[in-house]
Amino acid sequence: MEKKELNPIPVYQYLDAEGEVIERLPGWTRNKDILLNYYCNMVLGRQADAKAIALQRTGKLGTYPSCLGQEAISTVFCSLMEKDDVLIPYYRDHPGLLARGIPLSDILLYWGGDERGSASEHWGKDFPNCVPIATQAGHAAGVAAALKIRHEPNIAVCALGDGATSKGDFSEALNLAGAWQLPVVFVINNNQWAISVPRTIQSGAPTLAQKGISAGLPSYQVDGNDVIALHEVLSEAMDRARQGKGATVIEAISYRLGDHTTADDASRYRSGDELQQAWNKEPIKRLRTFLHHRGYWDEQQEQALIKDVGQQIEQNVQTYLNTPLPPVKDLFDYHYANMPSTLKQQKQEAELRATGGKHHE
Amino acid sequence: MSKITMVEAVNLALDHAMENNPDVVMLGEDIGVNGGVFRATQGLRDKYGLKRVMDTPLAETLIAGISIGMAAQGLKPVAEIQFMGFIFPTMEQLICHAARMRNRTRGRLSCPMVLRAPFGGGIHAPEHHSESTEALLAHIPGLRVVIPSSPVRAYGLLRSAINEPDPVIFLEPKRIYRASKQEVDQNTPLLPLDKCFTLKQGQDVTLVSWGASVKETMEAARTMEQHGVSAEVIDVATIKPLDMETILTSVRKTGRCVIVHEACKSFGAGAEIAANLAEQALSVLKAPVERVTGFDTIMPYYRMEDHYLPKPDDIMKAALKTLSFH
Ligand SMILES: Cc1ncc(C[n+]2csc(CCOP(=O)(O)OP(=O)(O)O)c2C)c(N)n1
Questions:
Q1: In testing the pocket of ligand 1, which one of A68, A133, A166, A208 has its CB within 8 Å of the most ligand atoms?
Q2: N or C: lower Cβ tally within 10 Å for chain B?
Q3: Could you tell me if B59 and B121 lie in one domain?
Q4: Ligand 1 centroid to residue B273 C-alpha, Å
Q5: Which residues from chain B sit within 8 angstroms of residue A172, using beta carbons?
Q6: Ligand 1: nearest atom to the Cα of A165
Q7: Is residue B222 part of a domain?
Q8: Given CB atoms, is A216 within the 8 Å cutoff of chain B?
Q9: Do B115 and B241 reside in the same domain of the chain?
Q10: Which keywords has UniProt assigned to this entry (chain A) (predicted)?
Q11: A325 touches chain B (CB under 8 A)
Q12: For residue B40, how far is its CA from the centre of ligand 1 (angstroms)?
């Protein structure tokens, strides 16, 4: 039996790699503003990503994970979220963060090694980036439980990679979301690789979405490079959650076109052919072609967008680079709401050390 | 006012906290209908309902993870881990997230949660039910580790732990869950965290302990009193952050110190106290600091656990050793 036949999961796709329509389009696609918003945000995400890598290469940013190739996924789910929904993101969701109104300067500040990048009021109650893989799945279930307990009308959205689906945290969170009917949407960014480990080694299951079935959750696959399909599946899942009908698992299939991070060299473990084929399916060109065909977009608009995005990025980079270092006391001030006396002593010590033994003037 | 045991005091503290603050919710394995395997949550589900007293699936990582999610959204989760031996799956969540959320977001989000777990030996439990691994947690910046040693302190400290705006690990020495009774009711005062309690005044030697070992430490102090040796007894209560001031004040008076704990000797909280004494009180010490502790072995099954746990006699011997040091 072919593995494909084992796939119990519906797969959604409206646009093929060439941007041609292959499925009857949903009505909302006649609203070109929605599509143009997606497009502009994806372009911003991609240019910002390139800039971040350039900053890292010139020593102005720490290790940075690229979102190249998966701009569509987080752009769509973040655009569909309401302000008081709670985002529990993963570390490749930069375009989504931008769509959610988080300034690029915050994102750069975070990857530039400054906790204040996760602190500004733009973040609302959203969670910051989570480094230990999949641990955020539990937080998302907790957030959703809190929303439900308090009868709040909002939902939680949790993103993670394909590698993350192998961790117990992921299964435990799905399991609870099913048992407690929690208002949460889990979005798997299946970009085919977890550093050098391919999807095939991650799991013998023919789809990752089907892990939701054992938890009793509706689970779908979607072409993660197709914003129309993403919008359809994600908005339906979010509506379900809002209506108190529980959680959904969505596996969005894309490809990590860049290295894992700026500290990685993907050519060590994957072929140029594979990468080339993946480039043929990438989300931005696909949407642009579709928009052109529909008469929603032209070369002039494209040039204006590129210019505008470039300026936005430049401003944010300057804001980031001009942010002064935090004072040494910041090392201590945020561990506890009520600072223990031992820490007060150590804080004084650190401030003395920082001033070469002299007290501040 | 009626006299109640420590586990009943825990129950009362949880009850009063839930009554006072609608954001307090409880979660854990078997805490609902069953009231917890030690009955610490007995009756609370009937009183506060399913949405505030939640039986979770059997998944410790998740219990800690959802507590963090809830806490960061403004609820006050009080989670129970059934036995401290099963706390290890929560460590990643505690260390990587609960302890750091405030710092990571510069105060935008925090984790005002309490994680409770019964711990320690002496109740003839199976393997993995009797260890004292408080030092593992105490090592982590951002956490508080609180250990009561009596019904009054269980009530007062747990209420304060629930009021605390940061994560608190509240470890309940199950060997003394029902060992004694004290008068506790809703007028029993809340007790400060981050403070040691002096249980008995004395002049000759300072005995420092926490949790269930306070029982043997007090027994030793009383016997010594009959033999004319006056011991001061300190209940550390909050292991992290450690109130060295109270301990130092006492040792400056007595010049001698014996530290008593059930946990393994090496790298324990006793070593931390001894190191602080060496740093800050060497000139007043009349003898080396002694430690009376469990061994650096795996906690034995119950037939041998008596050989592992420190006895009043061991404590007295150590105290006499410091007294006869020249
Ligand atoms: C618990 C844990 N183990 C290992 C790592 C190191 N690590 C960082 S990213 C990564 C791969 C994750 O892959 P995936 O979930 O597929 O996301 P992707 O990076 O492909 O977007 C690994 C192993 C980690 N951050 N956390």
A1: A133
A2: C
A3: yes
A4: 39
A5: 57, 59, 61-62, 65
A6: 15
A7: yes
A8: no
A9: no
A10: Oxidoreductase, Pyruvate, Thiamine pyrophosphate
A11: no
A12: 39
Establish whether A256 is a catalytic residue.
Answer: yes
Pick from B293, B219, B205: which is nearest to B257 by CA? B205
Cβ atoms of residues B224 and B314 within 8 Å: no
Q: pLDDT grade, residue A1 (50/70/90)?
A: very low
State which residues form the domain around B103.
3-183
Write down which residue in B183, B218, B249 finishes a domain.
Answer: B183
Examine the domain organization and report whether B174 and B202 are in the same domain.
no
Within this chain, do residues B206 and B154 fall inside the same structural domain, yes or no?
no
Return the residue whose CA atom lies nearest to atom 25 of ligand 1: A132
Residue count of chain B: 326
Compute the nearest-CA separation of B29 from chain A (Å): 13
Are B231 and B169 part of one and the same domain? no
The answer, yes or no, to whether any atom of ligand 1 lies below 6 A from the CB of A163, is yes
Alpha-carbon distances, residue A149 vs A180, B13, B76, B266 (angstroms): 11, 22, 12, 44
Active-site residue, selected from the candidate residues B16, B97, B129, B261: B129
Band (A270; pLDDT cuts 50, 70, 90): very high
Residue ranges of E strands in chain B: 3-4, 24-28, 53-55, 76-80, 114-119, 144-146, 168-173, 182-183, 197-200, 205-209, 231-235, 238-240, 257-261, 290-293
B116/B209 same-domain check = no
User: Is A7 or B174 the better-scoring residue by pLDDT?
Assistant: B174
The amino acid present at B212, given as its one-letter code, is: A
State which residue of chain B sits closest to A131, comparing Cα positions: B96
From A4-13, A285-294, B302-311, the region with the lowest mean pLDDT: A4-13
pLDDT at B275: 98
CATH, residue B139: 3.40.50.970
Question: Tens digit of pLDDT per residue, chain B (326 long)?
Answer: 789 999 999 999 999 999 999 999 999 999 999 999 999 999 999 999 999 999 999 999 999 999 999 999 999 999 999 999 999 999 999 999 999 999 999 999 999 999 999 999 999 999 999 999 999 999 999 999 999 999 999 999 999 999 999 999 999 999 999 999 999 998 999 999 999 999 999 999 999 999 999 999 999 999 999 999 999 999 999 999 999 999 999 999 999 999 999 999 999 999 999 999 999 999 999 999 999 999 999 999 988 999 999 999 999 999 999 999 98
Report CA A154 to chain centroid distance, whole Å: 19
Residue B189 lies in a domain: no
The residues that bridge with B228 in the sheet, in sequence order, are none
**Tens digits of residue pLDDT in B218-253:** 999 999 999 999 999 999 999 999 999 999 999 999
Q: Is the peptide bond before B241 cis (omega within 30 degrees of 0)?
A: yes
Residue finishing a domain among B183, B217, B248? B183
Do both B138 and B245 map to the same domain?
no
Same domain, B163 and B120: yes
Q: What pLDDT score does A356 carry? A: 79
**Does any domain span residue B192?**
no
Task: For chain B, say whether A109 makes contact (Cβ under 8 Å).
Answer: no
- The catalytic position among A30, A269, A293, A334 is A269
Q: What is the spatial distance between Cα B310 and Cα B213, in angstroms, rounded to a whole number?
A: 8
Residue B191 counted as domain residue: no
**B233: domain CATH number?**
3.40.50.920
What is the torsional sign of CA B283, B288, B293, B297?
Answer: positive
Cα A294 to averaged position of ligand 1 atoms, centre (Å):
39
